[in-house]
Amino acid sequence: MKLAILSHGYKVSHTAYTFIATNLAERGYYVVSILHELPGDEPIPTTGKPYEVRMPNWQRGAATILYTLQSLQKQKPDLDFKHVLLVGHSNGGDMSMLFAQQYPELVSQVISLDNRRMPLPRSYKPRILSIRSSDQPADPGVLPTREEQKRYKIKIITLTNTIHNDMCDEGTQAQKEEINALINSFIQ
Fold first, then answer.
1. At 148, phi and psi to the nearest 5?
2. How high is the pLDDT of residue 82?
3. What's the per-residue H, E or C state across the chain?
4. Bridge-partner residues for 2, per DSSP?
């Protein structure tokens, strides 16, 4: 059975992506949604250069993803750990992209729902899909150039009718269907 790991956006519940989790489960994935924010955690910084001041949060998130993979290998050795899919929204997408840069051999595919700060890896592995909102631009250098997209086969798709905060269960049925259709096309 294939494995998908979901990482939520900042201040969004890890259970707020049921439309994605259900969709992936229906396609044969064992889905794990990580709770990255615990009561008592320091809030992520809102001043300073986001790439620099939020890096400790992303590093902790990447370490949690690694711990989750290692734990699952012991608990569920029958899962397919050669084709791991990461899906992350916003801050969770930044964590997922950092993990993909640090451990490309552990991830087959990464889907970002509007990560804005952590640059997408410029590499052939893992395969990358970045689904972008219409209202929240990525910081300079986060998204690859058109030439890099073509070279590394990175897919970037902007949803003209979806804003950043609608990329979870809060979105309309049409928005969720559009996101799932893009995910399904990518993972096939």
1. -65, -40
2. 93
3. CEEEEEECCCCCCCCCCHHHHHHHHHCCEEEEEECCCCCCCCCCCCCCCHHHHCHHHHHHHHHHHHHHHHHHHHHCCCCEEEEEEEEEECHHHHHHHHHHHHCHHHCCEEEEECCCCCCCCCCCCCEEEEEECCCCCCCCCCCCCHHHHHHHCCEEEECCCCCHHHCCCCCCHHHHHHHHHHHHHHHC
4. 29, 80
Query: Residue 135: CB partners within 8 Å, gap ≥ 6?
Result: 163, 164
Q: Do 34 and 5 form a contact (C-beta atoms < 8 A)?
A: yes
29-34 and 109-113 beta bridge pairing: unpaired
86 DSSP β-pair partners: 5, 110
User: Cα separation of 68 and 128, whole Å?
Assistant: 21
For residue range 92-151, what is the model confidence (pLDDT) as tens digits?
999 999 999 999 999 999 999 999 999 999 999 999 999 999 999 999 999 999 999 999
Predicted TM-score (pTM) of the model is: 0.96
All residues at 6 or more sequence positions from 20 whose CB lies less than 8 Å from its CB, including other chains: 6, 87, 179, 180, 183
